[in-house]
Automatic annotation (TrEMBL):
PROSITE patterns: ATP_GRASP (PS50975), HIS_ACID_PHOSPHAT_1 (PS00616). Its EC number is 2.7.4.24. One of its GO terms (biological process) is inositol metabolic process. This is Inositol hexakisphosphate and diphosphoinositol-pentakisphosphate kinase. The keyword Acetylation applies. Keywords: Acetylation, ATP-binding, Cytoplasm, Kinase, Nucleotide-binding, Phosphoprotein, Transferase.
């Protein structure tokens, strides 16, 4: 309280009325006034915008900060005239309107920021020789930014920020913007090229687990932090029953507290807000907002009022600064706040108050959802166009294998294949017409696979070219000889696409986890821990179906909306090493499969089956049907029956398309926006297979199964094909039942009987093998940092 006879310190609030009358500002000014030491003078818009500075109120201390329409230069002239103490300095506020200057100031003070580069255009759509855009990255002054990357306008008042996603995640762009109702971002799957109408900063995208951290300082020694759902996930703003955005308190690390102090000092803003990105154990500042207050926090209002009181008294009445009121004067009439509800929810304690048990961790390992059958085409190629393509993408290394996965690479492969297919049957020397025809068929299949869907996403198709034979040739410059590849093995992998049903399965499982994982908690995960997104980690292998399953699961688990690409990039960590153990276990698996083949072919005479053992899985080959060897010829016969039917359908496919009212099916990009069920409805009505698989590829799928299951020349069965036949049967029964393939239900029953025995035994036919193989397969997948 001001001492008797002592004049109150006048605090001028020279900000736009919208800011001066905001709830946080009112709450804090009311508290300052309650101390009895200050007189609060609010200038108002008319004074700030219309009156000359000579007639403005005279004050001892000034709260002044920029917002839209604010005459910053005019206020600076007033400060030069009256010389009040400034809570936030005015000159550095110019920096906050230019994101490049913000980053430069942060770098000057050693504050960590994302890796970035500047593209500065003097006029719209200016072509710059130092800026190059490719399919999945941009290059600026030699610095490469792979997608996903962030594009920010240099203008700090322009909040239209874009994130561009790689083709391997489906591509597209997400636009972030100031909240409009319950939306803070929109995903545009068709946008793939960056903007060129202005100047932009490009920076590395940092997945933060779907959470943004906002930090608020009041002086260099105080920082309050809150977490909110990041707009990059689904763009839906989480709000409480009162309509306020849901935010949770966050504890800052010592390094982050130092960063808050440095930001406050770097910009000479006592009251300041900035955005923090937490990524791989480190924190980075990505935006500084200037004057900012926390919303809906009585504790923060109390802290801010006390701290501002000290800052002002230190400057204008130091003899009063050390006097701390024993009781906060505004507490007398303030309604009581909830005492422990948020605290208990935030701590993660389960059950009634007083129990000591605490859930510390939940680990779940989940398989991908329903998918199309995985497919592979292998062929040896000698065509110059394909060999040159291999060299083009492996840097000219004649010995190196080449992997083609991006849209540009696959388009090049398709262009080359299209040129080769028409003359494939006569333009290649071979040992026999049969080999020549098989090679032509495989090239047709490659072409069909690459043309499937209408565009390349980079998720479900990839090709490998591995050189096999070389000849010596003279270098063009006459500088000696080099080995030129003349034959390569091409392996095209496709299929394994997560279906509409698969996405729904994964999303429903995530929703089930959210609501049922924690007994006694009606809202499940959302009430377990208020900052759960900081603790949530989702890992996926690099297979497309697994990534999309993980994204769909996260969508259900966290109650998100929208498409999966932004969710995938923001929340799912791709770990290719997750499957490394599979390679380590292949020798043991090969032994197990060989023994399994012998057991089936020998009619399993040494195997105890059908529950005759107390622990049937403990016996070699347990679970196989007793008549497994008799079922194999039937399996071959029924597989041939399906293949022949699909072949006839493939031969009539062109005629069907020509006469159907669905001759022009929805293009992939349009149909994707309509939803997969719309695509399938059109194809079913046209009598075609579901999804984008045509009869040609469907026939190739069944023909390969028929050929690989039984080698007539050697009279040998390959029992490892049984799971694939079962897989194809199940897929066609579920998704292509409208084709009414004769014999398919019977084939499914036979394949299921055999697969139920084969699948568990492929990873070891006895406990010792299972333990050895399992430990190698699962070892790398158990824990990730």
């Amino acid at each position: 309280m001001a001492q008797d006879g002592e004049q109150k310190i006048k605090i001028g609030v020279c900000v736009m009325e919208k800011k001066a009358t905001s709830a946080p500002m009112r709450r804090i000014l009311e508290r300052l006034e309650a101390f009895g030491e200050f007189e609060i003078i609010i200038f108002g818009d008319n004074v700030i915008l219309e009156d000359p500075i000579q007639s403005w109120p005279i004050c001892d201390c000034l709260i002044a900060f920029y917002s839209s329409g604010y005459p910053l230069q005019k206020v600076k002239t007033y400060v030069a005239l009256r010389k009040p103490f400034l809570v936030n300095e005015l000159e550095p506020q110019h920096l906050l309107h230019d994101r490049t200057k913000v980053y430069e100031r942060l770098e000057m003070y050693g504050i960590p920021i994302p890796n970035y580069a500047l593209v500065n255009r003097e006029y719209p759509y200016q072509e710059l020789d130092y800026f190059v855009e490719h399919e999945d990255f941009v290059e600026i002054l030699g610095k490469r930014f792979q997608k996903p990357f962030v594009e920010k306008p240099i203008d700090g008042d322009n909040h239209s920020i874009m994130i561009y996603y790689p083709s391997s995640a489906g591509g597209g762009m997400k636009e972030l913007f100031r909240k409009v109702g319950n939306r803070s971002s929109e995903f545009h799957p068709e946008v793939r090229r960056v903007r060129r109408e202005s100047s932009y900063i490009y920076e590395e995208f940092m997945p933060t687990g779907g959470t943004d951290v906002k930090v608020y300082t009041v002086g260099p020694d105080y920082a309050h932090a809150e977490a909110r759902k990041s707009p990059v996930v689904d763009g839906v703003v989480m709000r409480n029953p009162d309509g306020k955005e849901v935010r949770y308190p966050v504890l800052l690390t010592p390094d982050e507290k130092q960063m808050a102090r440095d930001v406050c000092n770097a910009f000479q803003q006592a009251v300041c807000g900035f955005d923090l990105l937490r990524f791989k154990g480190r924190s980075y500042v990505c935006d500084v907002n200037g004057w900012s207050f926390v919303k809906n926090s009585h504790k923060y209002y109390d802290d801010a009022a006390c701290l501002l009181r000290k800052i002002i008294l230190d400057a204008k009445a130091p003899h009063l600064s050390s006097t701390i009121p024993p009781n906060l004067p505004w507490k007398v009439n303030e309604p009581a706040q909830p005492s422990d509800g948020l605290t208990r929810q935030g701590s993660g304690i389960i059950g009634t108050f007083g129990q000591s048990e605490e859930l510390r961790c939940v680990i779940a390992i989940i398989r991908h959802g329903d998918r199309t059958p995985k497919q592979k085409v292998k062929l040896k190629v000698t065509e110059e166009k394909l060999l040159n393509l291999m060299l083009k993408y492996n840097g000219g290394n004649t010995k190196a294998e080449t992997k083609l996965k991006s849209a540009v690479q696959l388009q090049d492969l398709l262009d080359a294949t299209r040129l080769l297919v028409p003359r494939a049957s006569s333009g290649r020397e071979s040992d026999s017409d049969a080999e020549d025809m098989e090679h032509a068929d495989k090239l047709h299949q490659v072409k069909a696979v690459l043309e499937e869907g209408g565009h390349f996403s980079g998720i479900y198709r990839k090709a490998q070219l591995k050189p096999l034979k070389w000849v010596k040739a003279s270098k063009p410059d006459g500088g000696g000889e080099f080995e030129h590849p003349v034959e390569a093995l091409m392996v095209l992998k496709y299929g394994g696409v997560l279906t509409h049903a698969g996405r729904k399965q994964a999303e429903e499982l995530g929703r089930y986890f959210r609501n049922n994982m924690y007994p006694g908690e009606g809202t499940g995960l959302l009430r377990l821990h208020s900052t759960y997104r900081h603790d949530l980690k989702i890992y996926s292998s690099d297979e497309g179906r697994v990534q999309m399953s993980a994204a769909a699961f996260a969508k259900g688990l966290l109650d998100l909306e929208g498409q999966l690409t932004p969710i995938l990039v923001s929340l799912v960590s791709k770990e290719s090493s997750m499957l490394d153990g599979l390679e380590d276990a292949r020798p043991e698996m090969k032994v197990a499969k060989a023994r399994l083949h012998d057991i089936i072919i020998s009619e399993g005479k040494s195997v105890i089956r059908n529950g005759n053992s107390g622990s049937p899985w403990m016996v070699d080959g347990a679970g196989l049907p007793a008549n497994a060897s008799q079922l194999l010829p039937l399996l071959v016969q029924l597989t041939k029956k399906i293949t022949s039917q699909v072949k006839l359908l493939a031969e009539n496919e062109d005629e069907k398309l020509a006469t159907s009212k669905y001759t022009v099916l929805p293009p992939y990009d349009q149909a994707k926006a309509l939803g997969k069920t719309t695509i399938d409805a059109a194809r079913i009505a046209a009598g075609l297979p579901c999804g984008s698989e045509g009869f040609l590829l469907m026939h190739a799928r069944w023909k390969k199964l028929e050929r690989d299951l039984y080698n007539e020349r050697k009279d040998r069965y390959d029992v490892t094909q049984i799971p694939d036949i079962y897989d194809s049967c199940k897929y066609d029964l579920v998704h292509n039942g409208h084709l009414n393939l004769e014999g398919l239900p019977e084939l499914f029953k036979v394949a299921q009987l055999l697969a139920d025995g084969v699948i568990p035994n492929e990873y070891g036919i006895n406990p010792k093998q299972k333990l050895k193989i399992g430990s190698k397969v699962c070892g790398p997948a158990v824990f990730f940092q």
